[in-house]
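One-letter codes give the sequence; each number marks local geometry. A record appears below:


***
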Amino acid sequence: VSVNVSALEMRQPDFLERLTRLLQENKLPPELLELELTESILLQDAQEAAQRLGQVAAMGVGLAIDDFGTGYSSLAYLKNLPIHKLKIDQSFVRGLPDHDGDRAIVSAIVHLGRALHLCVVAEGVETPAQRAALQEMQCDHYQGYLCAPALPAADFALLLVEGALAPLTGAEGPGLRG
């Protein structure tokens, strides 16, 4: 389960206690939870953010940087924080495969992620041409309307029961690398 967490939520003094309680109340193993953070979380107090993210990671909860490439923070956090996933913002994916600037940015993010042993996910994939470009760049996963539109929980559960999502590999959608 992936959940977006705002910088404001992350800075609340009782964040870790609430997270622990919610995991227990919902009987969700921490390894099955991923918190998606924007780069803005790291702009306030980098030392406090590092400490808090370290505590979350120590619980077994995964950490992903959402909308990667749109923030203003330093790349240093990628090597200093327990991040395991980068999610490429859809604004860069939208121009694939034809826009040279978007292609260069997406390729650079994929290569950066791979060099740092991070999983890389492209957001907002809507066309087979975008998926093919991402596959060529060796992006790990994609998400977006090409995979499935946003669904109410009951409709998603029905897809699971019917096995319609069986070919998917990975939590984000079909894997791109072979």
The first helix runs from residue 7 to 11. The longest strand covers residues 62-68.
